[in-house]
Amino acid sequence: MTEPxxxxxxxxxxxxxxxxxxxxxxxxxxxxxxxxxTLGLVFAMLRRSPLVFVSWPTAILVxxxxxxxxxxxxxxxxxxxxxLGVSLSxxxxxxxxxxxxxxxxxxxxxxxxLEGVPRGQLEAATALxxxxxxxxxxxxxxxAIPPVVPALGNYLVAMFKDTPLLSAITVVxxxxxxxxxxxxxxxxxxxxxxxxxFFLLLSLVAAWGVRRLEGRLRIVFGGTR
Length: 225
Known about the structure:
This protein has helices spanning 8-47, 52-67, 70-79, 90-115, 119-127, 132-162, 174-185, 189-221. It is mostly helical and 225 residues long. It has one domain: MetI-like fold (Orthogonal Bundle). α1 runs antiparallel to α6 (132-162), α1 runs parallel beside α8 and α7 packs antiparallel against α8 (189-221). GO terms for molecular function: transmembrane transporter activity. InterPro entries: AA_ABC_transptr_permease_3TM (IPR010065), ArtM/GltK/GlnP/TcyL/YhdX-like (IPR043429), Ectoine_EhuD (IPR014341), MetI-like (IPR000515), MetI-like_sf (IPR035906).
């Protein structure tokens, strides 16, 4: 009897193993995105600083990160930092690399949003004698963040699809686990097909979540402008 191209029984057997690896992938993506959106906003604010010795080094750092491959940055953090006395686990290193790399891109998105806030709003905040922190929190960010949410969501999906690079620093994420299963059983169709389906489904879920968040922010901050 001819062996089926896709063995559903074998797929069911490996599903729990792939599920465990999927948790690692999702964890790395979510934590990396938290780092990216937080650090990206810091980079954007520093680049807008009127102090040249703050804005220029930040701009150079952002452009350097954007101009070098993510994989090289992972290797640097994983193999060089221990020589400097900083030892991190592979997953922590991967999260840091993903977050730092995408923070550089998120900072440009934030910068566009910040520059889109009408200057008159800042002048009005100054006239009301608001502190810089209150101006940022109550005037600038509520207007700058909602329009850039779709772009940030795109980077979330892109980061999720970049997680297979974590295998280069010994993190057993989803794709790496499927390769291990394939090399053990010599059946690659099932694990790789399932990995593709997982990536597709979670990317669609992430895109849907971003659209919902965008709509929610429009309702909350719709009257800000």
